[in-house]
Amino acid sequence: MIRRLPVLLPACALWCAAAAAAVPELDAETVIGHPRPRVAEVGYAEPETFDPFTDRLYQGGFRYGGPPVEIPHEVRYLTALGRVKAMKRIIACADAWYYPFSHTAPKAEPPGIDIEILGRIAQRNGWEFSVMWANTGVYRGGLNLAFRQTINRGFCDVFMGTVITGDDDHMSRNAMTFTRPYLGIGFVLVHNGKVPRARTLEELKGTGIKVGVPAYTPMQENAEKLGIPVVTYFQNQRVIDGLLRKEVDAIMVWGPSIPVANREKNVELAMSRGFQPMPGQRFNGAWAVKSKEDGFLELINKEFGEMLASGEMQAIVERYGVPWFPPFDD
Q1: Was domain 62-183+284-319 assigned CATH 3.40.50.880?
Q2: Of the candidates 111, 132, 161, which has an alpha carbon nearest to the alpha carbon of residue 63?
Q3: What is the pLDDT along the chain (330 residues), one digit of tens a residue?
Q4: Are 183 and 317 in contact (CB under 8 A)?
Q5: Distance in Å from the first CA to the final CA of the chain
């Protein structure tokens, strides 16, 4: 028996491997999507997202391989409006990691503010829509590179998720123009409940309240000019962590970062009621199209105007937990 043992071991290994292969591997099913459950629930799995740091195709060099749908040769060189009408489809470019405006989580979560707005515009005109995912991260070249690799090559008709900052040289560099603004975005006040109601940052002057702010942003400069004690952090999410760790009593953060924190940290933060960001703390959100696309620009502007007037735009934005401000005049 001792002599036969080495012969039996390989046979057992082959049999065990065959038995394991015969057992089907069950797919994880997401039964709870958004928001994340407060307590553990049977069958819960994290929503599907596209993570560039672990995606093999992305790391293997796949970036912008072309539009998500085939563009027929006969419409390839038409204006954006002509192509959209001929194909009965809008092709939009959007950042794949720009929650809550756009993100790749098709199975478990809402698609994002911009994607929903795009869907409404397409539906109102009897069209369909497709999205080509881009990466506008600063370490990937920002909007300059994203424009060059997508809309400049005719892969999409509109680039969503842009912000009018007044320092937008990437627009003229790529012969792009902004649509009319469709919402206001700003740095807003969030606190731990111990801060008196304040409609502006200036109202915290002289209270001794310590405020967390993102480093090297207008908020740091604004708070320091007012003589408000500040603690600086790199990135909005770290500012929010400072509030959750009770290192500060209040924070000034980019409004859309609030739902990101609520989604990722399983908390329920909200802007201080009635707060209004002042000039220098606020900007307008818009989309971008090629400067030559006059007819298409007018169509998007008309749709934005109607959605703003009806309250449809506000309803979409607030459903994602982003503080709503109509476009700012400045």
Answers
A1: no
A2: 132
A3: 444 444 444 445 444 555 555 555 544 433 333 344 444 445 545 545 555 555 554 454 445 556 778 888 888 888 999 999 999 999 999 998 888 999 876 556 788 999 999 999 999 999 999 998 888 876 667 899 999 989 999 899 999 999 999 888 899 999 999 999 999 999 999 987 777 788 999 998 988 889 999 998 888 999 999 999 999 998 899 999 999 999 999 999 999 999 999 988 888 999 998 999 999 899 999 999 999 988 999 999 999 999 999 999 999 999 999 999 999 997
A4: yes
A5: 90
Omega prior to 68 cis, within 30 of 0: no
The domains spanning 62-183+284-319 and 185-265 adopt the same CATH topology: yes
Residue 30 is which amino acid? Answer: T
Sign of CA dihedral 195, 197, 200, 202: negative
What CATH number does domain 185-265 carry, 1.10.760.10, 3.40.190.10, 3.40.50.970, 3.55.10.10?
Answer: 3.40.190.10
> Position 46: which residue type?
E
- Which residue from 219, 106, 287 is spatially nearest to 233, judged by alpha carbons? 219
Domain ranges of the chain: 62-183+284-319, 185-265
**How far is 257 from 99, CA to CA, in rounded Å?**
9
